[in-house]
Give the backbone structure.
Amino acid sequence: MASILDLARMHDSGDLAGGVSEIASVPGVDSTMVTAVRTAAGQLRLIAWRINDAGPVTRLGDSGETAGAASDIDIAKGARFVVACRDGSGHVKLISWDVDDTGAFITRAGDSGNQAGGATQIRIVALSDNRFVVACRIAEGNVRLITWRLNDDGSLARLADSANAGDTVAEIALCGLSEERAVTAVRTQNGNLKLIVWEVSANGELARLGDSGDAGGPATLIRAVVTEAGMVLTSIRDGAGNLQVMSWEVTEDGSVNALQDSGHQAAGIEDNALVALPDGIVSAVRIAENNLKLIAWSVDQAGTITRRGDSAAQAGTSSHIQLLAGPDVAGANGHSVSLVTAVRTDAGNLKLITWGPPLVRLHFKILSAPTVDTALMLSSMQDVYANAGISVVLASTENLNLPLLNDLDIGVCTLGNTTVEQQQLFANRNDVQTNEVAVYFVRSTNPPFNGCAAHPDARPAAVVAQGATQWTLGHEVGHVLGLLHVDDSDRLMTGGGTANITNLPPALIPIEQSTMIGSALTIPL
Amino acid sequence: MALSATELRSILDSDEPDYKQLAAVLQPDDLPQLVELVGGADAMLASKAAYAITLVHDESALQALDTAAASRFATVRLALAAGLKNMRGFDVTSVAQQLLADADVGVRKLAIKSAKTLGVSALTPALEALASNDSEPGIRALATDALNA
């Protein structure tokens, strides 16, 4: 099952798409997704993609030039894909699309005609297969919701709207809470975040229920999602430019209560996207130097938000960030995509990036069997790393008969400094790929260490001595992945000896998880 | 002043002990604690303590070396053989000869390397014997290299 900690970059779509100035995206069926973009020429174009289980992205087909000029584009999926946009004359228009099973043919099924007036900030959500809600900012500056029915022939019929019940707003986010409720998260006239709950009757009539008042504080780049438990999560850029995530309870009567917030997290964000997964939420933000970063958050039943880790510097410069849950379908080789980001690259082109579970692949090279069984060392490491969302796999085991390297000279054992004996030993890399870690179990080291993670460039490796503890393997590989010692005996990377860990199992904290995922040796599952 | 037991263990218990830091603070008064650790049941800790003994630059350390050289743990004798190179200026001939004749190939390897660093002529016969007769070709090569150094 996909996890918020599946933050290892897998693949991307390369140069399969051209220039775009807006991106919207929605999951399709059978490991596909559809992006609705505004092309460099200002035209709406839909593109269907297949997300392959090992991460590569295949462009299946597109809508060609059938859509016309558009801006403020959003897309939702019911019985058909429905795009809501601002057409060439500035009016809200909904267009429904059919995507065939192969994804090669995207055909326009119908549209809403001239049933809506001028608006910007257009958002759409599907409440059911044939009922959609659009939220938009009308000419007077108010948020207006409009309900629509998708007819069998692909046309769209306007059902009702919220009239003047909406506040004056500068930004709008929209999410569906149930088939009868939607939530708008808006930036009000005074610059604050406000959540408004709307009830949608069977015939599409809209009624404003409760709102959050001024509990939201200053906000821009507002995004909102609903968790499986029905909790609303918002992510915003606060008044100081920092990312902040907030949890909200929507009660039976439709009132909104602020629960918790994340405090001020990533600084100086520009773009902001948010998605809910079964075990929490993931933010995708544009940070300093325009780099894309994914941040994982767990949310408990009380709404407490805990930052669990991030993707570090695995993605390059990006803007117009969209974030979707991946297909999460494991292929025969066990690979699966948990998240997909759709971004605008530096060159202005659309690119899809896939993300999956991070994995460390180990190869055991045994000169002397350790006192603590290697199976226990491995399972202990797997337990600790799993808490950081990182899988550990033993890819191979080989016995080496090298008596003169069995008591290994490790010198000063600092990163980047290796002895002749270490270089001789680490040359034994049968079956070990460049981005995999070889662990050599030796009888002893000179001087006596439990283990040593110093290794030659391009030969990631560590040694573990016979008298090592059950945690030494995870500790040394932690060094190989970039972790340093800490003065905390509750943690795996304690400098006080893994024999003296006080709170078992030892911990890896989020910043360590981020470093490990950022390592070239943490590869996608 | 001797390190407290807690201070000593906090250094030696590390997965990667800072022996440079340890060498800077060890005193002859610490030897009884180290000898006790060498004789303990924890082979890893005993080997670290044996190595630490070689960092005490004092005549009184020589007797402690004998204890380590007699350890039932090969890893303790290995640590001692590796650490003998730290004892330049002290007469460690007897312990070195004992380790050069050790049944364990690893002990012999590390003892040869230390003997090469120590440059003590009294060890030449033992090195010559290894260069000529050791069953392990690598040991013969190392001993030859030490003699030619």
Observations:
- Chain A is about 5% helix and 45% strand.
- The interface with chain B takes residues 371, 403-404, 406-407, 409, 413, 443-444, 446-452, 465-469, 472, 475-476, 495-500 of chain A (CB under 8 Å).
- Helices of chain A lie at 374-387, 420-426, 472-480, 510-518.
- The longest helix of chain A spans residues 374-387.
